[in-house]
Amino acid sequence: MTYQTLSVSIDNQIAHVQLSRPDEYNTMNTAFWQELPAAIREIDAAALARVIVLSSTGKHFTAGMDLSVFTSPDEDMFTGEAGRRQEIMRHRVKVLQETFNRLEQVRMPVLAAIQGGCIGGGVDMVTACDSRYCTADAFFCVKETDIGMTADLGTLQRLPRVIPQGLARELCYTARRCPAPEALAAGLVNRVFDTHEAMLEGVFDIAKQIARQSPLAVAGTKEMLNYSRDHTLADSLNYMAVWQTGMFQPTDMAEVFTAKAEGRDTEFEELRPLPGGF
């Protein structure tokens, strides 16, 4: 596909999805909300990669929602009977939420590489990724409170699962900036890099390590981690047992042992493309 707001490349089983509107601080315009889920869906559906790196261009990772989304809403958002108007509003919010849900649901791990400002919707987006890395000049800001609204696309649900509750609430209530050192100390990011270039090199090194593993084992691991985060320990262990009953096969383990014995890199079969319609 050809994108207006993104660039997508795939090399050595790593998909690189870049926000590509640096002059507009990579704000999330109408096209973005269509293109990001489409790109992630295409990678997942066709099993085009084993890991996804989500990065950006320019001074800032993203300044969040583009003002055009607020200033040029659909006409029916403010006309007609109140109950029906608000009912469709609920569905519009859920459509936007689904954009970032895709990052969480995709079978491949998603690594976010963040430079400069990660503001508003940017926090919604990166907290849906598996791991986050940033540059020394990066900062995170839950901007919605500062403009008179409640963040509605995942920050309030995911951020407290990543960092301590007290800090998450402070950041959400005050809309203050959380700089890179604080983000690292709180566990919001895994590592801070001096420059954008060093960050991309470091994140791609991690992506390469993931890509060398069995894609079935990695997909199962992501499935279990997500499930365990949202369920009790007992339920999660039970689901793990059921998963192994259906998914565990000795093929990839045998390949690991054989490759080590022969002194070569492993060669795994890729995940199968998803059935049509997904």
Architecture overview:
The protein has 278 residues and is an alpha/beta fold. It folds into 2 domains: 6-211, 2-enoyl-CoA Hydratase, Chain A, domain 1 (Alpha-Beta Complex), CATH 3.90.226.10; 215-262, Orthogonal Bundle (Lyase 2-enoyl-coa Hydratase, Chain  A, domain 2), CATH 1.10.12. Helix content is 49%, strand content 14%. The chain has helices spanning 30-45, 67-71, 82-105, 121-126, 155-162, 165-174, 180-186, 196-211, 215-230, 233-247, 251-262, and strands at 6-11, 14-19, 51-55, 110-114, 117-119, 131-135, 139-141, 177-179, 191-193. It has a 6-stranded mixed β-sheet, sandwiched between helices. It has a 3-stranded mixed β-sheet with strand order 5-7-8. Helix 5 runs antiparallel to helix 6 and helix 9 (215-230) packs antiparallel against helix 10 (233-247). The longest helix has 24 residues, at 82-105. The chain is globular. The chain starts with 5 loop residues before the first strand and ends in a 16-residue tail after the last helix.
Task: Considering the chains and any ligands shown, give keywords for the structure.
alpha/beta; 2-enoyl-CoA Hydratase, Chain A, domain 1; Lyase 2-enoyl-coa Hydratase, Chain  A, domain 2; three-stranded mixed beta sheet; globular
